[in-house]
Amino acid sequence: MNPDISIRDAMEDDLKAIKILMSIYFLDIEEIPADNFAVAELDGRIIGACALVYDIFPEIHSIAVHPSYRGKGIGKSLIQYLLPRVRDESSVYARTTSPGFFEKAGFVETDPLKKTEIWEDCAECNRLNTCNQSVMCLKLE
């Protein structure tokens, strides 16, 4: 990763830039507070963001890197930055349409039907049989 890119905790003032970045990929971040996010910053601009949501279990909920900076290790660095926040858990999960990215970060694809066990909105979804989201899991040591 470029040494001029810094990863830091997001602040309330960053939410507008985070929302714009997430909207590029049609990612919804409503009701996720700023302190759940980490951001990648270059020259004062946010070029990446990732949220760790801790409900019943820890989940990488939203992650996005500006298209001009993809493939440079920023997404993986954002995940690694957030992982120390996970306490007393053996796994972190993610739902994604980009399983290859998560595999590069150490996640393993799990049974798609596991969605109904761990996400209430998946269990109630009428498109479960045609859903293209993969369930990814990272085992923590």
From TrEMBL:
- Its name, as the record gives it, is GNAT family N-acetyltransferase
Instruction: Please name one Pfam family that this protein belongs to.
Output: Acetyltransf_1
Task: Identify the keywords attached in UniProt to this record, alphabetized.
Answer: Transferase
GO MF entries = acyltransferase activity, transferring groups other than amino-acyl groups
SUPFAM superfamilies attached here? Acyl-CoA N-acyltransferases (Nat)
Extract the PROSITE patterns matched here: GNAT
User: Domain N-acetyltransferase spans what residues?
Assistant: 5-129
Give the source species.
Answer: Methanolobus zinderi
The UniProt entry, under Gene3D superfamilies, shows:
3.40.630.30
